[in-house]
Design a protein that fits this description.
single chain; HIT family, subunit A; three-stranded mixed beta sheet; 14 strands; 21% strand
Amino acid sequence: MTQLDFAQTSHRRLNPLTGEWVLVSPHRMKRPWQGKREAVPATNLPAHDPECYLCAGNLRAGGQRNPDYSHTFVFDNDFAALSPAARGAMADGLLIAEGESGLCRVLCFSPRHDLTIAQMALADIERVVDAWVEETVNLGSRPDIGAVQIFENRGEIMGCSNPHPHGQIWATRHLPNEMEKETHRQAQYLLDYGRPLLVDYLAQELALGERIVAQNAHFVTLAPFWAVWPFETMILPRRRIGGFDDLTADEKSALAAALSDLTRRYDRLFDVSFPYSMGFHQKPTDGAVHAEWQMHAHFYPPLLRSATVKKFMVGFEMLGSPQRDLTPEQAAARLREV
């Protein structure tokens, strides 16, 4: 097989978690840019904003008043995308639909309006991890919940409606599309090889080293071989961990440290509060063992060349397959450097 020059040759890479391909075009980083440039987000936010519906003691848009919380605060989303009572179904030829029940929760990371995870103290990030564990256990134990999806949209460019540091937890009756694909692919790999897919993948990446960004005693941050977004990363545990409810006390602290390290690196990359969508994929909560599942975090930041130039998913990306210019190896090197 002819050896590929990843840094110069257009090629495609397989994502073993989804079975989908991504086109890599490293030579396109040389093209001039005369397109849209984003505004740099404001950094002079107050510690408490009396108009913010997530700040401690304030009135929310739904009419409820927040308690005067001092650390994390979790509540049911006042404008939830899912309702617990959604029922019914329809099947008429190719027209198929069914009710999707679930719960949507909001997690305020801190009472401080002006912080991000990158700026929070490690002990406070550990409290966020503890809240994720608690929500996973409480929501996942419900018989009507099949999956718990934890995520954060950071920055206006990612559609975040409020700069207050917060994330969301959506608990759904069925597996969402991405979790269904990852469950199928990981189960097939375990059946074929007798080992979890992402455990084997991490071992291979650690041996090569070129896409590793950072690591600690329990977690490794890397730019995945099949990454789509320019500075996309994953955080992977060193041992097999199905979900948040499997974490030990030391692992919870190590995960908090990995989150702090990565978000600080992002902020230093372009000297801006780095936008992203991030989320954790973990085993389904249907009561099965799911030995195939390896918990992991995905970070999808949109910035490409600078704080004002983002990657657009349009044209071929929407109609054909995802495409990237900067290689994952180059992205990992730049994140390591900062």
